[in-house]
Amino acid sequence: MWDKDFNENPFIVIWELTRACQLNCLHCRAEAQYKRDPRELSFEEAKKLIDEIYEMDNPLLVFTGGDPLMRPDVFEIGKYAIEKGVRVSMTPSATPNVTKEAIQKAKEIGLARWAFSLDGPTAEIHDHFRGTSGSFQLTMDAISYLKELEIPLQINTVISNYNIHVLDEMLELVEQLGCVLWSVFFLVPTGRGQEKDMISPVEHERVFRWLYAASKRVPFDIKTTAAQHYRRVVLLEKRKEARNKEQVIQYEHVLKDGTTGLIDGLGRAPKGVNDGNGFVFISHIGDVYPSGLLPVKGGNVRETPLATIYRESPIFQQLRDPNLYKGKCGVCEFRFVCGGSRSRAYAATGDYLESEPYCVYIPEVLRKKKEESNWA
User: One matching Pfam family, short form (predicted)?
Assistant: First the structure.
């Protein structure tokens, strides 16, 4: 796992089983609908896709949506994958579909982990963001079922203008719930997501530093999504804390090739995962994207094997070469471990190789140029 070559195989595959969902979330990437799309991959196509995923060095597989529980065959698909040896997690929506019986069934087939979204410490904040009254209570009920059945819990939270003022309370709630991982998402203006709901670049930086400090005192892991520049904050902080020259040299090595396995607090990946670089998203109809937040299609699994799309699509190949990045991302010393959110760059500029627009960091080479011009 730790020597996985992202040019050949992804670290994680996100599969949107369906776009059907009973919620109406303000930020929904999928712009989910209440009814299932008749074009969804069939059960037989699903099994074929799982076979292809497994052959790509068996990456992590996450069932998402919409709401994966809107597919009546979700547990049959999960059972097929798990019996094959694939590690499967699921991120269902907190709706009446999440019954104790459904969770029990998931446990019986061997589902590794459930992830629920919780976007505020109160019903008022969470339900507003999820666009559905009662969603907070349904989430808390579902979490209680997980605890009763001893299934590991992951909490997903989208940071936005709606909850940035209650992050301390949110952290306390996540700890009280006994989760194993807090996955913190940073909004990308795609789908229903709006730029007005995003926190500012300076606020991104403040939240990153807050997250790093929090990660050192809580009993659960913290990882980020669409916040690649958090890795730069972690790396800089750890370099400051280095106790000897050998540790400093290790961190310098990280800058050269992006290998992050030696650093905790950066998620489970051995290298800096980014859109199309260790990460691949498959839509409900088989379209393949670098991520669910970067709507530039690389192919379709009904027409081309997933491995061929991931390895040979020009889009994916470009995204795996940080030296192609433009602007300050292209000259930044952190481009191999960070690289900025390619999704957010695309949403802001229409070019997935452009600079991360919500990063305040000035690369060393640009700082030196400015100093030289000041002396001239």
Answer: Radical_SAM
What does the pLDDT read at residue 264?
41
119, 130 in Cβ contact below 8 A?
yes
Structure tokens at 167: 């992050």
In the structure encoding, which two tokens stand for residue 26, read together?
């303000």
Count, residues in the chain: 376
Query: Which of 89, 97, 75 has its CA nearest to residue 141?
Result: 97
Q: State phi, psi for 324 to the nearest 5 degrees.
A: -90, -10
Q: How far apart are CA 279 and CA 59, in angstroms?
A: 10
Letter for the amino acid at 248? V
Q: What is the pTM of this model?
A: 0.91
User: Phi and psi dihedrals of 240, rounded to 5?
Assistant: -65, -35
In this prediction, residue 34 carries a pLDDT of: 73
Predicted confidence at residue 292, as pLDDT, reads 93
Q: E strands, 20-93, where?
A: 60-64, 88-90
Residue written as token pair 């991104």: 204
Give bridge partners of residue 221 from the DSSP assignment.
181
Partner residues linked to 79 by β-bridges: none
Among 320, 373, 295, CA closest to 31: 295
CA angle, 147 then 150 then 156, to 5°: 60
pLDDT for 23 equals 65
Q: Which residues, in sequence order, are CB contacts of 150 under 8 Å at separation 6+?
A: none
Q: Which residues of the chain are modeled with pLDDT < 70?
A: 1-3, 23-32, 191-193, 245-271, 375-376
Joined together, the tokens standing for residue 184 give 């913190």
Phi, psi of 47 (to 5 degrees): -65, -40
Sign of CA dihedral 293, 297, 300, 306: negative
Helix (H, G, I), strand (E, B) or coil at 16: strand
Sign of CA dihedral 341, 347, 352, 357: negative
